[in-house]
Each structure stands twice: as structure tokens, then as C-alpha cells.
Amino acid sequence: MRKIIGFLLVSLLFSAAPVWAQQAYLSGNLGFGVRPNSDIAGPSGNEFNNDPALVVNGAIGVEMSPILRIEGEVGLHYNSSDVAGFPQDFTFSAVSFMGNGYFDIPTQSPLRPYVGAGLGFALVGVEEDFFGFTDSDSDMVAAFQFMAGLGFDITPKATLTFGYRYFTTTDPSFNLAVSGPFKTEYSSHDFLFGARFRF
User: Fold this and answer.
1) Could you tell me if 12 and 174 are in contact, meaning their C-beta atoms sit under 8 angstroms apart?
2) Does the structure show a pLDDT above 70 at 10?
3) CATH of the domain at 75
């Protein structure tokens, strides 16, 4: 009897796998990022004083199983910044293209915690405003992120989410008319509200 029950359970698992593999979804998030002050490479020892960033992203993904999913994501970070003692105003942006993987922790309720990680690249740009004279530059760099949060299933097809993610890149390099060439750090602690819709 145990062998029969075991065989039935294994058969049920494998028969359900193709259904889950076809469970695609769209998701979106909106929130803000706390950007730490970022060092500017060079002998001056200056740093950018970063204001909070607007953060928005969208993704298309597939639930590979009830607990595992993968997705491709496009995101945007946007914030203003300055350097103490200097008259320039700066605006930073980062357009990211990420491949993410998630583990949805199973519970006996509609509330499901999750953790995840992502790898990709970002086009980081900066614009400098010096008394109305503007210049800009950008650099393509590697990007990484780590995520954790909560999902709440409001219907079998829709999930609301609240999450934290740490987004960071390798140091981008820029060359601006007034500031000249420099490298700086880029990272953000993001707090996001979102939704995921299965189809």
C-alpha cells in the first residue's frame, strides 16, 4: 500500500510540473531608494550627498514550481545629488536589465515570504548643472541585487507585494565638462510596493 501511495504522489507531482512551468506572470513595483553617500575616486576624498531615489521596475517571469520563479526585469533609479563645497548640482539615473531568481517560502496561508537575487547590467548616467550650463555622461556596468519581502495572494491570479532590495553596481566612470573625469560608487536600499499578475 505504501508503494502505491508513493507512486501516486510522485505521478501527481510530475503531472503538475508542466502546469506550473506554464504559469507566466507580469509584475511591477514602485517605491523609493535610500542611496548612501558615495565616494568619488581621487585624491580629494569628496563624496556625493545623495537624495532619496525614485525607483520603478517591471518584469515578466515564469513560476517554475510553487516555490521557485525566474524573471527578466527592467528598472529605473533616479535621484539628485550634490558635493559639499561645490556649486554643481547632479542628477543620477540607472536603467537596469536584470535576470532574477526567487524562492517563495511556503506557508499555510495567502501570506508568503520570499527571498531572491539578481544579476545583470545597468546604464548609469549623470547630469551636471553648473549655473545653468549642463553636461552629461553615462557608463554601462555590471549590476547585482538581493531581495526579500512578503507576498499576499488576493486571488489565485493576483499577488500584492512589499519588499526590500539592495541594488548595487560596479563603479561607473564619467567625464564631465566642469568636474572632469571621475569614478564613483552606486548603490541603493530600495523599499517597494508592487503586484504580480499570473496569466
Assistant:
1) no
2) no
3) 2.40.160.20
